[in-house]
Design goal:
Blueprint lengths: L1 E5 L6 H6 L1 E6 L4 H12 L3 E7 L15 E6 L5 H8 L4 E4 L6 H6 L1 H22 L3 E7 L22 H20 L3 E6 L2 E2 L12 H10 L5 E3 L5 E2 L2 E2 H13 L7 E4 L5 E2 H12 L6 E3 L14 H7 L7 H15 L2
Parallel strand pairs: 2-3, 2-5, 3-4, 5-6, 6-7, 7-12, 8-11, 9-14
Antiparallel strand pairs: 1-4, 10-13
Helix pairs in contact: 2-8, 3-5, 5-6, 7-9, 9-11
The structure holds nicotinamide-adenine-dinucleotide.
Nicotinamide-adenine-dinucleotide (NAD) binds next to helix 2, strand 3, helix 5 and strand 6.
């Protein structure tokens, strides 16, 4: 394990004592790094990132100012996790192999990280008596349940190994709360997009792929007819919700949707991007992907009532901000 520390206030030990320590697994990833930024921006926070850099990048954490430790470690390593979560006010568990098609192509590594890794991390948190765990669950757990929007009380119907693994993580978070006294809350993220989402992997999120195509003036290939719909959620709204979930009273053991409450088809997203950019590039269409659900939209009642959540970013504004970031960083 290597540790990279950027303690800005190392000499001010008294300050550390009154600062809250937060752990973010997967903190070098797309959503994790946005959460790390949000935690550091709120002030009074020490943040420890745990990441094995499988898909995460050091560059995602560049330019961060504050009390940040970065641990190159694997969530399946119980001893390392036990040391690192000790004294944490909250542990945000985002580390995962987060892809439906990858879990079908390579089910073993995704099972080992998403289920065994989550179990190991929870066990370490319970034994170290860490604070509340906020678990990054997934809307994929709903599968193709026909009712929209998706409400947390629905029976889950996972359609892929990834969806089943993320659901198992929720169950374990609940069981650790009930049986081992580890407070935990699961947030079901709905198609998150925003700056730092990697567009280069074959398993990349659709909006990051659209961004790259738009900048390079190419047609994207959409799997299926493009009329499948998603509740696209801007990454800063998700980070804000994670922080609220770590603080709100009475939510331990709960599963809460983390979405916008809207739904847009892939065709609509591509058209909106064309409009923002003032171009007219037709999409191409390919075979639907196995394991993909047709429609997804969050019922946000629980997030509003239990966490006081109100998403700040509508789709067009989120797309503009995301596009600005891709433009700035593309060479
Ligand atoms: N992006 C979405 O739309 C979405 C939707 C639902 C749920 N989620 C969940 O949100 C979380 C973050 O996803 P993301 O989109 O930021 O993906 P990401 O790939 O950018 O982040 C995952 C991070 O976990 C790290 N990681 C993987 N295996 C690890 C291991 N064994 N030990 C330590 N670190 C490890 C990776 O290096 C990476 O930094 C995941 O748990 C994912 O399942 C994401």
């Amino acid at each position: 394990m290597r540790v990279f520390a950027t303690w800005k206030h190392k000499s001010r030990n008294w300050l550390h004592k009154i600062m809250e320590r937060y752990v973010v697994t997967g903190g070098a990833g797309f959503i994790g790094s946005a959460l790390v930024r949000a935690l550091l921006n709120q002030g009074g926070s020490q943040v420890a990132v745990i990441d094995n850099f499988l898909s995460g990048k050091r560059s995602n954490l560049e330019g961060l100012d504050g009390a940040l430790e970065v641990h190159d470690a694997d969530i399946r390593d119980f001893d390392a996790m036990s040391r690192m979560v000790k004294g944490a006010a909250a542990v945000f568990h985002l580390a995962a192999i987060p892809s439906v098609p990858r879990s079908i192509a390579q089910p073993v590594p995704s099972h080992e990280v998403n289920i065994d890794g989550t179990f190991t991390l929870l066990r370490a948190c319970a034994e170290a008596k860490a604070g509340r765990v906020v678990y990054a669950a997934s809307s994929s757990a709903y599968g193709d349940t026909e009712v929209l929007p998706k409400v947390e009380s629905m029976m889950p119907r996972p359609k892929s190994p990834y969806a089943a693994q993320k659901l198992m993580g929720e169950y374990y978070a609940g069981v650790f709360a009930d049986c081992f006294g580890l407070p935990g809350v699961s947030l079901r993220f709905f198609n998150v997009y925003g700056p730092r989402q990697d567009p280069l992997s074959p398993y990349s999120g659709v909006i990051s792929i659209f961004m790259r195509c738009l900048i390079e003036r190419r047609s994207p290939t959409i799997h299926g007819d493009g009329e499948q719909s998603r509740d696209f959620t801007f990454v800063e709204d998700v980070a804000a919700l994670c922080i609220k979930a770590s603080q709100a009273p009475g939510v331990s053991g709960k599963v809460i949707n983390a979405g916008n409450g809207n739904r847009y088809t892939l065709n609509q997203v591509w058209q909106t991007l064309n409009k923002i950019e003032g171009v007219s590039i037709a999409a191409e269409y390919g075979q639907p992907r196995p394991g993909d659900v047709r429609d997804s939209q969050a019922d946000t009642t629980l997030a509003r009532t239990l966490l006081g959540h109100q998403p700040e970013f509508r789709l067009e504004e989120g797309l503009r901000r995301t596009l600005a970031w891709y433009r700035e960083t593309s060479t």
